[in-house]
Amino acid sequence: MDLSVLNKIYENELYLDYLRYHPKWYVILNDNPFNYTEFEKIVKKEYKITSYDKIENFKKQIDFINGMIKYLNS
Fold this sequence. Notes:
Helix content is about 80%, strand content about 0%. It has helices at about 5-10, 15-20, 25-30, 35-45, 50-74.
């Protein structure tokens, strides 16, 4: 596997964790290191750390706070 790809993987615990449970990516990244961006997208989607997921979590927190305020005001 390409050394730069290995360094990127070892810098991020989530990537290592994902690789432990999905070892097929070792082969894919070894054959073609340019698939690293696809690997990143899949890991972020799997662990729900995309921008969309962060916005949704923030929205849920705002809704919860609004609900608490309405409850306390009534």
